[in-house]
């Protein structure tokens, strides 16, 4: 019980740090543009391919490969969006770096949750 609570607290802290970095990339007076906040859509979409593939009752290996491909595409898009915005000079490079740091925190939280809480009852990967 105590280790599970400790894990949940660590996940909450890591997720909070990631979201703080993302909000700082948008709200600091130096940057003051909210375009980087759109990476939150990728955070929301990231687990859906895996969840859908886990619900299908077949043992088809193409199912896992397709889910992994879609998940990797979503994750790479969330890292690419701030870089493209910075290259197009829509946002500043400092905001881009803060967004990328927030991405690392957010996806580390998702990975830690999956390997810490979900991996025991699933043979998805």
Automatic annotation (TrEMBL):
<keyword id="KW-0812">Transmembrane</keyword>
<feature type="transmembrane region" description="Helical">
    <location>
        <begin position="7"/>
        <end position="27"/>
    </location>
</feature>
<feature type="transmembrane region" description="Helical">
    <location>
        <begin position="64"/>
        <end position="85"/>
    </location>
</feature>
<keyword id="KW-1133">Transmembrane helix</keyword>
<dbReference type="GO" id="GO:0005768">
    <property type="term" value="C:endosome"/>
</dbReference>
<comment type="similarity">
    <text>Belongs to the OB-RGRP/VPS55 family.</text>
</comment>
<dbReference type="InterPro" id="IPR007262">
    <property type="entry name" value="Vps55/LEPROT"/>
</dbReference>
<dbReference type="GO" id="GO:0016020">
    <property type="term" value="C:membrane"/>
</dbReference>
<protein>
    <submittedName>
        <fullName>Uncharacterized protein</fullName>
    </submittedName>
</protein>
<dbReference type="GO" id="GO:0032511">
    <property type="term" value="P:late endosome to vacuole transport via multivesicular body sorting pathway"/>
</dbReference>
<keyword id="KW-0472">Membrane</keyword>
<feature type="transmembrane region" description="Helical">
    <location>
        <begin position="33"/>
        <end position="52"/>
    </location>
</feature>
<dbReference type="Pfam" id="PF04133">
    <property type="entry name" value="Vps55"/>
</dbReference>
<feature type="transmembrane region" description="Helical">
    <location>
        <begin position="91"/>
        <end position="115"/>
    </location>
</feature>
